[in-house]
Amino acid sequence: MSHTAHIRSHRKPRRSASKIAMRAGVAGGVLSTLAVAGASGAANAAEPVTQTLELPTLTADLAAQVAESATATELAAANYELQAERDAAAAEAAKEAKADLAEAKKKAAEEKRKAEEAARKAAAERAARDAERPTLKTAAATAASVETSTSTSAATGSAAAVVSFLKAQVGKAYVMGATGPSAYDCSGLVGAAFKQVGISLPRVSQDQSTAGTQVSLSNLQPGDILYWGSAGSAYHVAVYVGDGMFIGAQNPSTGVAEKPLSYDPPTGAVRVL
Questions:
Q1: Residue 42, pLDDT score
Q2: What span, in angstroms and rounded, lies between the C-alpha atoms of 158 and 72?
Q3: What single DSSP character describes residue 54?
Q4: Nearest-10 Cα torsion for 24, 27, 33, 39
Q5: How far apart are CA 230 and CA 159, in angstroms?
Q6: N or C: which end of the chain has fewer CB within 10 A?
Q7: How sure is the predictor about 74, in pLDDT bands with cuts at 50, 70 and 90?
Q8: Is 190 in contact with 234 (CB distance < 8 Å)?
Q9: DSSP state of 2
Q10: Could you tell me which of 146, 271, 267 has the C-alpha nearest to residue 210?
Q11: Parallel, antiparallel, or unpaired: how do β-strands 245-251 and 255-260 relate?
Q12: How many CB atoms lie within 10 A of CB 49?
């Protein structure tokens, strides 16, 4: 026996013929498949491929939901616009109301101021009249004294002419601002009477009350100018004609009239004759 006979061979064992044939068949099949695929790819490369994509079709329910959603969106937008218009109108109305209130307050304050001013003026006038004119009782007593002391006096000279003119005017109308010959106011009558004897007096009663020498009501003479109110601010004048009587243009209701001193007791008198 060889000395190497017990050593295993290192060479690979031979494959069986059947396995080799099977593998060859598989390889051939793969190659055939690749060939067919290549041929098919070449054929397909020669013709363009067109693909058609189909969009999904809305169902009836989905379309209704979309319509409802659009309607709701439009309604919400309309409501929002309407609310915005209402808010704007309310803001404008509030602005106008605020302006009207401010104007009303301003007018009310102005009316109140005018009323208070008128009340103060009326109170001042009343106080002035009360201070200037004697009380009725004192005036009546003064008039009685005047009538007693002057009852026998008689007009002479220029005074007689003044008194004669005045008596001729009794019954004529009282008209504010008139100086004759058909109508007079109080100072217009006095001025016209003294003009008969060449004496020019101031036009208004305030100035006529200081035109001569102040005399006491207990020492009156015919032709003395009587005044009501304070000297320099008198509001009425007339002329004493004797026997406790005076003639003056009193007011629109009486016109030019002859009255006793007690009818309206004067405040004072001045003498110009």
A1: 46
A2: 110
A3: P
A4: -100
A5: 24
A6: N
A7: confident
A8: no
A9: -
A10: 271
A11: antiparallel
A12: 6
With cut-offs at 50, 70 and 90, classify the pLDDT of residue 149.
very low
Prior bond to 252 cis, omega within 30?
no
Beta bridge partners, 225, equal 239, 270
Question: Quick one: tokens of 105?
Answer: 């307050």
Partnered with residue 257 across adjacent β-strands are 248
Every domain of the chain and the residues it spans: 65-132, 134-271
Task: Classify domain 134-271 by CATH number.
Answer: 3.90.1720.10
What mean pLDDT comes out for the span 188-193? 97
- Whether the pLDDT of residue 56 is over 60: the answer is no
Q: What is the pLDDT of residue 30?
A: 44
The pLDDT tens digits of the residues spanning 213-270 come to 999 999 999 999 999 999 999 999 999 999 999 999 999 999 999 999 999 999 999 9
User: What length does the chain have?
Assistant: 273
Residues 6+ apart with CB under 8 A from 249: 172, 174, 184, 185, 186, 188, 189, 238, 255, 256
Residue entry with tokens 């004529």: 172
Those residues whose C-beta lies under 8 Å from the C-beta of residue 233, and which sit 6 or more positions away, are: 132, 206, 209
